[in-house]
From TrEMBL:
Lineage, highest ranks first: Eukaryota, Metazoa, Ecdysozoa, Arthropoda, Crustacea
Membrane spanning residue stretches: 459-481
Top-level EC class as recorded in UniProt: oxidoreductase
EC number, as in UniProt: 1.14.11.2
Organism from which the protein derives: Scylla paramamosain
Superkingdom of the organism of origin: Eukaryota
Compartments where found: Endoplasmic reticulum lumen
Assigned keywords, A-Z: Dioxygenase, Iron, Membrane, Metal-binding, Oxidoreductase, Signal, Transmembrane, Transmembrane helix, Vitamin C
Family: Belongs to the P4HA family.
This protein's name: procollagen-proline 4-dioxygenase
MF (Gene Ontology): iron ion binding; L-ascorbic acid binding; procollagen-proline 4-dioxygenase activity
Length: 533
């Protein structure tokens, strides 16, 4: 317990605010803004430094002149003192005036720099804490090269190409302490070890104490609670002791998918105690690129051209890839062109700071919960591109996607380690849909405007499948059964973005405008399928 208190004190209490720079678009703006700020600072460094030196010399000359004299004696008729005063002002003020005149020409730059906090949101402690947690999650989920961290103090994201950025001892310490505080105890120890390997002689004692405390916490939690829970992750063997034991082979937990998950869904005890951890573990495995399904399931999946029975698409059908048959999940390629994606990203760029609820008339701060992204909503009338996208998907899917029949389009821009924990898109029995005339979310159309080069998969933990995404493609899945019940197998998560950028456009198809035109199965448990399945 004492070790826990030590680490907690070292980490400190996190701010209750929300990180502002939670998307790569905002970080890109910060890069450009910081470049401009530094260039302006360069122009004022020399004049300000010269002014400081001249003023310091002038003050020192004055203090030497009046040394030992009190104000009543300043008016003395000592010829030497009078001569020194004249020389002090005549020669000294000329230099002061020259320096002041040089500074006057840069006053507008200084004023511009001084007003920077009024023009743009600057990073704060929340941003640093969020970035530290993001790096922690990347190291945990993708099992990053911690050996390289210890040897060179570098966060290696791609050992093949050598893509890396050196982290200082202080930065490694910051990440390590946040990792411990967030329960990623093994990652925390590794980062603190890396920090110690790069620390100066002065920093060594403090880091020795931090590392010893982190190891003690890790080993205590491992002994009491085991290597994994929703609140913590440790190595499989303790770090302490005279000789560190070699890691044992990790036995993978059995996979729970499909019908087996639905059968356990009725078990309230399992749902409360076991389901969250099983889901998280399966999400992480899928994020690392695994497919948890047996070959007898994946071998039935097909690719084909489809037009949805629409004459409009007869000469230009879409390429469709099946991801899952139960629930029915597909990837439709070339839904949005590169130019259209660029227009939409440009449209949303300046609006990420002001997200709002689609069912509200006023701009309201959106509750983002566990999201590590920024988003905004776009109406069809705001972008002609969206009308074209809606027309294409309407012909292919046989549903109405215009804003009168569904919620507006949501554009989400993921940031450093951006992720979205497992969830379902439907509102559920306890939450009413925001717009009654639209109703529940019958289907989800998730369009990739930009895809990361590593990480960022969209995964379905209870299906056992994941999709890396292709720019311009759309994922389509159905959230409801024919009975209007929620298909719990459609729970999905967005994996942390490891390298590159991820921007997605989401459209939730409303149920109310579709039920009169869609065929209704007599079997209430029937999955909703596309006409061309």
């Amino acid at each position: 317990m004492a070790a826990v208190l030590v680490v907690s004190c070292l980490v400190g209490v996190a701010s209750a605010g929300h990180a502002q720079h939670a998307s790569w678009t905002q970080l890109e703006e910060l890069w450009h803004a910081e470049y401009k700020a530094v260039e302006r600072i360069k122009t004022v460094i020399q004049p300000v430094a010269e002014l400081g030196d001249v003023l310091k010399t002038y003050v020192e000359s004055w203090e030497a002149l009046v040394d030992g004299l009190e104000p009543p004696d300043w008016g003395s008729e000592d010829p030497a003192a009078g001569f020194s005063l004249l020389r002090h002002v005549a020669e000294g003020w000329t230099r002061v005036d020259d320096a002041l005149q040089k500074t006057r020409s840069i006053l507008h730059i200084i004023e511009y720099l001084a007003s920077r906090p009024d023009r743009e949101p600057l990073p704060n402690t929340d941003d640093v804490a969020a970035a530290s947690e993001a790096v922690t999650r990347l190291a945990h989920v993708y099992r990053l090269n911690t050996t390289a961290l210890v040897e060179g103090g570098r966060l290696v994201l791609d050992p093949v190409t050598g893509y890396h950025h050196p982290l200082s001892a202080n930065e490694l310490t910051s990440v390590g302490l946040v990792a411990v505080k967030k329960g990623f105890l093994d990652v925390g120890v590794q980062f603190l070890r890396a920090a110690k390997s790069r620390a100066s002689v002065v920093q060594q004692p403090r880091l020795d104490n931090m590392l010893a405390a982190a190891v003690k916490v890790h080993d205590h939690v491992l002994e009491v609670n085991g290597p994994r829970s929703l609140a913590h992750v440790t190595a499989t063997t303790p770090y302490g002791g005279p000789k560190e034991a070699s890691p044992s082979r990790v036995v993978k937990a059995p996979v729970v998918l499909g019908v087996e998950y639905l059968s356990r869904h009725a078990n309230a005890t399992w749902m409360l105690e076991r389901r969250p951890l099983v889901e998280q573990v399966q999400v992480e495995r899928l994020c690392r690129g695994e497919d948890l399904r047996p070959p007898r399931v994946t071998s039935r999946l097909k690719c084909r051209y489809a037009n949805g029975g629409s004459p409009w698409l007869a000469l230009a059908p879409f390429k469709v890839e099946q991801v899952s048959l139960d629930p029915y999940i597909t990837v439709v390629y070339e839904v949005v062109s590169r130019g259209e994606a660029g227009q939409l990203k440009k449209k949303m760029k300046s609006r990420l700071h002001t997200p709002y609820f689609p069912g509200s008339d006023s701009l309201t701060a959106a509750v983002e919960g566990g999201w590590s992204l920024k988003h905004t909503w776009l109406q069809e009338a705001e972008a002609a591109v969206l009308m074209g996208v809606g027309r294409r998907m309407r012909h292919l899917l046989g549903v109405t996607l215009d804003d009168a029949a569904s919620e507006p389009y949501m554009v989400a821009d993921y940031g450093l380690g951006g992720e979205y924990s497992a969830h379902r898109d439907t509102h559920g029995p306890t939450r009413a849909p925001p717009t009654p005339h639209v109703g529940e979310r019958l289907a989800t159309v998730l369009i990739y405007l930009q895809t990361p080069t590593q990480g960022g998969r969209t995964v379905f933990p209870w299906v056992g499948a994941g999709v890396g995404g292709t720019a311009g493609a759309a994922m389509v899945w159905w959230n409801l059964l024919s009975s209007h019940e929620h298909d719990f197998l459609t729970r999905h998560a967005a994996c942390p973005v490891m390298r590159g950028r991820k921007t997605v456009l989401t459209k939730w198809v409303g149920y109310v405008p579709q039920w009169r035109t869609m065929s209704c199965s007599a079997d209430p448990s029937r999955k909703v399928m596309l006409p061309w399945h």
